[in-house]
Amino acid sequence: MICTWRGTQTSSMHAVVLICLILSSMVGCTGEKPQPEPRHSPEPPTSVTTQSVPRFDGNRAFNYLLKQTSFGPRNPNSKGHRECLEFLTNELRRHADEVRLQEFTHTGYENEKLHLTNIVAVFNPRSSSRVLLCAHWDTRPRADHEENKTRRNEPILGANDGASGVAVLLEIASLLNNQPPAIGVDIVLFDGEDYGFEGDHERYLLGSRFFAKNKPIDYIPRFGILLDMVGDKFLEIPKERHSLKFAPDILDLVWGKASTLGFTQFLDEVGEEVIDDHLPLNEIGIKTIDVIDFNYPDPTHRYWHTHQDIPEHCSAESLEAVGTVVTHVVYTQTP
Ligand SMILES: [Zn+2]
Q1: How far apart are CA 150 and CA 217, in angstroms?
Q2: How far is the CA of 27 from the centre of ligand 1 (A)?
Q3: Separation of 166 CA from ligand 1 center, angstroms?
Q4: Which is the CATH superfamily of the domain at 2-29+45-331?
Q5: Are 288 and 247 in contact (CB under 8 A)?
Q6: In angstroms, what is the span from residue 317 Cα to ligand 1's centroid?
Q7: CA–CA separation, 322 vs 58, rounded Å?
Q8: Tell me, what's the pLDDT at 2?
Q9: Which of 75, 25, 85 has its CA nearest to residue 211?
Q10: Whole-prediction pTM value?
Q11: 181 CA distance to ligand 1 centroid (A)?
Q12: pLDDT tens profile 242-292
């Protein structure tokens, strides 16, 4: 993703018919940082209304993060990209009712033909009441903000910027398989979100743009939730500005759930404006918010787009906070 506005940076298918239709990514921060205060992890929910919500396991999600980074950088046309695509596809096929690969190409820099794939996993396909959950699975082919200038042209590992959102969604996929939700859920992993050079906005969001352009006319999810950079050990998620403009009610829904559950990582303040995969979705009328902690790890330190974006700077606890909130949002939706 691209941050285009910096505010106060302190804390801050449906029906079977639709299955037959193909449902057809964000440009997604080095230095020593202070050790974080451990964030509050809530006790397991006990109220009647939340007992039917399965427990999201942050450690399992973190293992999904590690698995992705084990392939190395996953930038388009790389070995890690090919291997990770196979892993993600197989993993989602274990859990979802239907998995479709939306393959497309894009002419990249120096006329390189990029082979890109969005992965669409469909749960409870017969339900016409649907929610879209998404993240980008590709990683950046360069480290623009790396302190060591000689390494800026090397692809990044993308533990947070790439793997974290996908990790949460893979764990949610396993929950959806074990305990089918009342509504339909589509998990979409976008490719090519983080390809472009800084400033070349046309070469970002390649997967989400393709998805939006090829969306079946009768695929109308209630809303979408995009997860990007949600693994930061020092997780603080303000309300992203485009989300506030396009989908304020969805922000309220998600932040309200976080508040009820006691997850203080979700801040009641407005953050940056970020160009990310939620924009092409909002442009075609799918109200989508971007859950993102751009200040990785904090406003004065940057692991973003550096070789410091590694698993050691992410945590299972952060993934569990975000995963638990999204799981509660999904399981409390009624058809
Ligand atoms: Zn990025």
Answers
A1: 47
A2: 4
A3: 14
A4: Zn peptidases (3.40.630.10)
A5: yes
A6: 22
A7: 9
A8: 76
A9: 25
A10: 0.87
A11: 31
A12: 999 999 999 999 999 999 999 999 999 999 999 999 999 999 999 999 999
